[in-house]
Every structure is written in structure tokens, then in C-alpha cells.
Amino acid sequence: MTRPLQVDLPHMSPTGSIRWALAPVREARRLVAAGRNAEVVEWFRQRPYEEVRSTPELAVLFAEALLGAGRLEHADHVSLEAASVARTLGDCRVEAVATAVSGEVALVLGDMPAASSRFSRARSLAAEQSDLALAGECAARIGEIALAGDDPESAVTSFLGAVAAYETVGDVSQALRCVLALALAYRQMARFDDALAAADRAVADAQAAGDPGLRGDALAARADVRLAAGDAGIALREAVQAAALQHSAGKFAHEAEALSLAKRAQVALGAPRRRMSARRDHDCPAQAEITQKCHV
Fold first, then answer.
1. Angle (CA) 157 163 122, round 5°
2. What is the CATH number of domain 1-130?
3. 240-255 in b/e burial notation, b at 16+ Cβ within 10 A?
4. Domain map (residue ranges) of the chain
5. DSSP strand E in 61-217: where?
6. Contact by Cβ (8 Å): 74, 68
7. What is residue 30's predicted lDDT score, i.e. its pLDDT?
8. I need a surface site. Which of 55, 110, 215, 255 has the fewest CB within 10 A?
9. What pLDDT was estimated at residue 8?
10. CATH number of 132-210
């Protein structure tokens, strides 16, 4: 039992206090997991303020609901206060989660320096508690911020740390996501051999996972690297393959991105590429239809 759950109420035994505190935490967690953010916010508004404030685990869930409901300023205040109270109570686990949530809020608000600082703090706290899943997520966020800020070298370091953390806890899909991001960071640095090696690994891992959507993402990332490296022909073929996989997986936004990449590869080739392999079209009927979408 963690210390924040031990709410001291008048006329209740310590055991009764803990049981009382667990009920709202579980209920709030259930509602947050269901994505019922507006309902969760209203649920918290009906709780006594001191109950939420003095129970950081409750406050973190409140902050997550506020973030999901788009009430960013309030979410920022609640998450920072939750981290402060957890720190006072000596609960590093909850402080790490609260700090990570505050980082997400800062990210949505567009305050990249604050977001990076908060994620760095949360990552350190999570690592101290051996919470590698949270440490990996924070490292990935730091990498994304660095990449967006045109600092690919720092991004590479963060993504490598995230991959190691996710692999340790066996989270294949998140590790793959970070490997893809690593490929893009290497591409931004014009380290095309390293970028292709990372993309190749992502394609192989996605194939092993048996997820066509992930494989489509990996192929699209590799096509992007190939295009940047000047190999537009292979980039076009892989981008169309990626679009077909993403179409079959129902990832239509990703499909559109892959088709856009294919069009850029066509432009780089100097003329529309209308001839596709009859064998490939036969093997994947959707391939021929999607190929037509690429023509400009």
C-alpha cells in the first residue's frame, strides 16, 4: 500500500481510511481508462477538494481527465500540485507519474522547454523506482521534443534509451515505435546507413509481430529514408507497399501519408511511375487500386 492512499479521516481506523481511499482511486481509474473525460472531471468536482489534493494518486487521475477534456491550464496546476504533494509524502512512484502527466500537459500547451524538463525529471524518478515502462515513455517523449527542435543527436540518445527500456519490459510495439523514430533521427543527421539499419530492424520486428499496420509504418519509414538517400525507385515501391498494408489495417491517415511519400518519390524520379509489377498486383489486389492513387 502506498503512502498517498492512507488518507487520515476523523473517526476512522487506519484500515478504514485506506479502504475508503482505495474506492475513489479505483473508480476514477476505471473512468479514465474508458476515456470518459468529461464525466471524470464532473465526478472529481463532486469530491471534497481536500480529499483529492491530499491523495496524489487521485489528483493524477484528475489531471489526466482534465488533459483529455482539453482543460489544460487546470490540468497543469493539478498535475504539478500532485507531484509536489507526492514529493512531500516521499512517494517517488506517484511523483514520477504526476511529473510525467505535467510533461504531457506542457507538451500540448507547446511549452517544449518545460515539457522536456518535466519528462527528464519523471524519467529519473521512474528509473529510481525501476519503472522502466514509464522511464521508456519519458525518454521517447524527450526524443520527440529534441527531434522537433532540430536536435537529432540528443534525440538519438533518448530513443536508444527508450528502446532499451521497452525491450527490458517486453513491450515490443513501443520499442518498435522508438526504433522507427531512431531511423528518422539518423536520417535527419544524414547518417543514412544507420537510418537504414534501424528501419530494416523495424521492418523485421513488425513482420515478426504479425501486425500489418506496424509493418506498413516500418516500410513507410524505410521508404522515407531511401528517398532522402536518393534511392527514389525503391522508395516509391516501398511507399506503395506501406500504403496497401495500412489500408488493409484500417490506418487510413497513415495510408494517406504513405501515398504522399509515394508521390514525392515519383517527382524525384522525374516522371509518374505507372508500371507496377503484375505479380505484386496479383498477390495483393488492393495494391493495384492504391497504386492508381499515386499517379499525378
1. 70
2. 1.25.40.10
3. bbbbbbbbebebeebb
4. 1-130, 132-210, 211-296
5. none
6. no
7. 76
8. 110
9. 24
10. 1.25.40.10
